[in-house]
Amino acid sequence: MALYEKDSVLGLYCLGTIPDKRNHGTAASLIDFASNKVNSKNLEFLMLETYGKDNLLEFYSKLGFEQVYSKTVYTI
In the prediction, which pLDDT does 21 show? Predict the structure, then answer.
């Protein structure tokens, strides 16, 4: 997980867990850590950046995130 702070926002990106360690609450704990940072620093919100192809939008939604922006990224 990588965090960055700009203005009144805490950004979270590069969140990942080792495949055989998934479904043990690790990612949720990391997100909780970031959320607590937002609260302790009186920031406005936590912004999560992720790729739709990771198929984790439902997981993030269950943790309270809502999709507010989407863009298409092309690679060769």
Answer: 84
